[in-house]
Design brief:
Length: 320
Amino acid sequence: MTKRNAPHISVLLREVIEILAPKDGEVFVDGTFGAGGYSQAILEAANCVVYGIDRDPLAISIGHKMADKYSGRLRMLEGCYADMEMLLAAKGLSAVDGIALDIGVSSMQIDEADRGFSFMRDGPLDMRMSSKGRTAAEVVNEESEAELARIIFVYGEERRSRAIARVVVERREVKPFTSTVELAEAVASVVRPTGKGIHPATRTFQALRIFVNDELGQLVKGLAASERLLTPSGRLAVVSFQSLEDRRVKNFLSARSEGRARPSRHVPVNDEGPAPSFKLVKRGAIKAREDELTANSRSRSARLRGAIRTSAKAWDEVAA
């Protein structure tokens, strides 16, 4: 397995811990465990318990090794954070005091060429965060030209999606795509560099990764599960790196912090609608401070949104 020896740095770590404000005796969920940076910081901040969730077997392995240091206070669960209710219920838990989510691919996964997330190093065109489901190669080689264009446009916000889909279909008829470099070269043949140092294949790779792992679907389910699991005064911290993700987090929390759902600000509030289930920690997203921007370039695109659970029922419970 090819790796790059760069340490994984948890983005906006200080700010996440400020939102979660761990206290002795509390229970937390690190829904996207990764290399365990958030879990470790939570455990160091208070004599509490953290359930680390991840669908990546490598992350689970890291977590089990880390757990030895914390005398049973770190407990690993293999699976997706969208299924956290089911995973926690199997352990007898139906409520927690705080949840941290770091949405998207981790630098640890990108650094492993064999995972196929990056076009910077040649590797198999995989992109799965777990070992289940279709690979990116299967999507690229099997989907129709129209569907490929849709995936690349919707999940990558790539304006040249039709041209990319066309060249992909033309080339796969000669030889199916198997590696990251092959796909990156195909995309680069029809997408011009921006002049900002961004590789032409960046948006296409983002789109395929999100599609293969159903990241937006998992995010929507995970946010709803968080609303149901958090106790009154429970804290939620969500870090995202793409506008597609951040927009969903923003809309979810904004609606539930204002309450009384309405289709537009110009439409009168429905007084019979659900009461606010969250209180925002801050209006707008929290961004990395200057010292973190200097130390970790990945933090430049990071957006953190935090909220505190009220005593109101979860919105889907009200609708039911």
